[in-house]
Design brief:
By secondary structure, the protein is α/β, with parallel strands linked by helices. The protein has one domain: Spore Coat Polysaccharide Biosynthesis Protein SpsA, Chain A (Alpha-Beta Complex). The chain is built from 11 helices and 10 strands.
């Protein structure tokens, strides 16, 4: 048992919840596992019983509220907000924990990832390429970044940190909470605020997560109604003047075609 929890963020009745929990049960080191939900159902409780995990029910209030509830219920030093549709590689917890523990000031630890579309895995899209390029440039010689300036520069070209892969250090984050002002980019905005804190981002260069893209995912829905695109413009505006914001946001808008189902 390591000082780490998986808070599985369950929303409604995902057909992929069992596969996610199965991947967490197959970790090479044991973590605490619990389901966090604001949409309790017989379906969720039945699956929880089958896997022997507890279900904690919070009040409805949006994605940020759900994620904040999951963070607040973790009793360990580290917690991963596991997305119900995703699959975690067996060494995810072990590698993240060991890398994070190398430093006393780790804020978050995250990994590379691949995608699952229509039950097929893919590791090469324009969006994945952009993210890997950003991370490779800023973490070419070491797999962590500490300076506040450089953490913000890392985030200024987009969000290269895959949210489902992130392991949070609750001891250094000091009751950190996600913002309700965002529906899609609440993770990017969170990393931006963390970048201004003392402490480092730690990167596991191996792909330890399979992120599922499907028609009902929040990312796909956010693209259809332009929420993602509008929030991208808002985030880029934190770093750049207007004409550069337009260039970067247009590049990302084209890259989102890989998320079309």
């Amino acid at each position: 048992m390591i000082n780490h929890s998986f808070a599985v963020m369950a929303y409604k009745d995902s057909p992929f919840l069992s596969e996610c929990l199965e991947s967490l049960k197959k970790q090479t080191v044991e973590s605490f596992i619990f389901i966090s939900t604001s949409t309790p159902s017989v379906y969720i409780f039945d699956i929880a019983k089958r896997f022997g995990v507890e279900v904690l029910v919070g009040e409805p209030g949006g994605i940020a509220n759900d994620w904040n509830f999951g963070l607040s219920k973790a009793k360990t030093k580290y917690v991963t907000l596991a997305h119900q549709d995703d699959v975690y590689m067996p060494q995810y917890a072990e590698k993240c924990y060991n890398n994070a523990e190398q430093f006393s000031d780790t804020l978050i630890c995250f990994t590379k990832y691949t995608e699952i579309v229509n039950d097929s895995e893919r590791g090469h899209t324009l969006m994945l390429g952009i993210k890997h390029l950003i991370l490779s440039f800023f973490m070419l010689f070491k797999e962590n970044i500490r300076g506040k300036f450089w953490k913000k520069v890392l985030l200024s070209f987009g969000n290269p940190i895959p949210c489902p892969s992130v392991m949070y250090n609750l001891e250094t984050l000091n009751n950190f909470r996600f913002s309700n002002e965002y529906m899609i980019n609440l993770d990017w905005e969170a990393w931006y605020r963390m970048a201004k804190m003392d402490g480092r981002f730690v990167y596991v260069r191996s792909s330890m997560l399979k992120h599922r893209i499907h028609a009902d995912s929040e990312t796909t829905l956010g693209l259809k109604n332009n929420v993602r695109q509008n929030e991208d413009i808002k985030m880029f505006s934190f770093f750049w003047p207007g004409f550069i914001v337009k260039i970067l946001s247009s590049i990302y808008e084209r890259s989102y075609k890989s998320n079309e189902i």
